[in-house]
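Hi,

Apologies if this is the wrong queue. I'm a grad student, and the batch job for Carbamoyl phosphate synthase small chain from Bacteroides fluxus YIT 12057 produced an output file that my downstream script rejects. I'm not sure whether the problem is my script or the file. Here is the sequence I used:
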Amino acid sequence: MNKENNKQNLTSSPLPAGEGKGVRLLLDDGTVFHGKSFGYEKTVAGEVVFNTAMTGYPESLTDPSYAGQLMTLTYPLVGNYGVPPFTVEPNGLATFMESGHIHAEAIIVSDYSENYNHWNAVESLDDWLKREQVPGITGIDTRELTKILREHGVMMGKIVFDDEPDSGQWGVDNYGDINYVDRVSCKDIIAYAGTESLHLSVDAPAAQLNAQLSDLDSRILNLNSGSLNLNSGSLDLNSRRKKRVLLVDCGVKTNIIRCLLKRDVTVVRVPWDYDYNGLEFDGLFISNGPGDPDTCDAAVQNIRKAMKDEALPIFGICMGNQLLAKAGGAKIYKLKYGHRSHNQPVRMVGTERCFITSQNHGYAVDNGTLNEDWEPLFINMNDGSNEGIRHKRNPWFSAQFHPEAASGPTDTEFLFDDFVKLVMGGF
Ligand SMILES: NC(=O)CC[C@H](N)C(=O)O
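Support response: The file is valid. Your script probably expects a header line. Output copied below for reference.
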C-alpha cells in the first residue's frame, strides 16, 4: 500500500527558498506532512508524540525517557533561546542538561528560529542537533499534527528526505516492543557523594562494593571534617557514613540526582536490572525511563526482593511509579496520547491540594488493579488517570509526574524532602 496517497497530504506554509532540504513526516496512518530539514540530515523512525510545554527543549531532548520518540513541540517558535553549554560538574553530571546527550530521535517544530539570544546560550539548536546527529523538521503545522495524534492516539512515524526515495520500510520495531531502558541505563555502578563520584564494577561481589562505598564515605567525611556539622541529619554516627540512596537507573534525569545530592545523601546509581539487594543502603529510588514498563521485569523482581524489608523507604518517579505499582501487583496500560507538558494538574488524594506538574509519559497505572495494600496518591485532574501511589502501611510511594521538573514547575519538589526525611529515619 502506498501510504502517502492514502491519507491527507499536508503542506505547511513554505519556508524562504534556500533554507533546509525538503523533508516529509510520514505517519503510520498514511498522513504526510511536508516541511524543511534543520539539524542533522538523516532518515529516522519512531513513535510520534507531542509536548505542549512552551520552553525546555534542551532538557526534553536530553531526557532519556524520549528515546525512540519523535518529539513534536506544539509551541510554535522554537530555538530562539539557543542551547546552554555542555559543561560537566566534578561528579560527572551535566550542569544544564538532563543526561550526556540527546535521546529523542528527532524534533518536529512549526517555526525554527535561527536567531537566538540568552545569557547562557553558546550555540544554536541547529548546530547542536548537527553535532549530535539528530534531525529536526521545521515548517510543520504542529497543531494539526497534534489534533491527528489526539484523535488517533500516538503512532509510529518516519522522516524521509524529498530527494531520497522512501524504502517503504520503517527500519525499527514497534515502539512498545523495544527495551529502551536497557539502551539508556548506566553500565557501571556510579556512587555520587558530595562533589565526588566513583565508578564501580557490576561484577564485583557485594561485600567488596560495600567496602568501596564505605571508603568513599570516609574520604568525603574526612574531606569535610573541617566544616562538618555533626548535627547534620544525613550523617549516620553509628556507621560513620552518610545516608545512602540506591538509585535504579532506568534512564535517570540528571536533576533527580541533583535533587537527592542537594539533600545531603550519597547516591548509588545502578543499572536497571542489577540486583542491589546485597548492598548496604537506607532508601531505594526508582527512576524515570523510556518505553513500555512491561519490558522491565528484572527491575520489578528486584523491587519485590527489596520490599521484604518493610521499613525500607522507597520512592519512584514516572517509570518508577509504574515499576513500583507492578511490584505491588498492579497493571499498566497505554494512554491514548500521553501527558507531555508543564501544566498537568494533579490532586493529592484525600485533600483539596492540587499541583501543577511537569510530565512526560505514555503509560499509566490502572487504579482499579491496585490491591488492598495500596492506594492512589495523586490523580490527574484532566482525565482521572493515576499520578502516583502509596502503600497504606510501609514508607513506599511514587509519582507519575516529575517533581524534579527540569524543565517545568517545581511545586512538587517537596516529595524529595519527604523521601529524604524517611531515609534519615524520621517523619
Ligand atoms: N518519563 C518516564 O519515566 C516515562 C515512563 C514510561 N516510559 C511512559 O512513557 O509512561
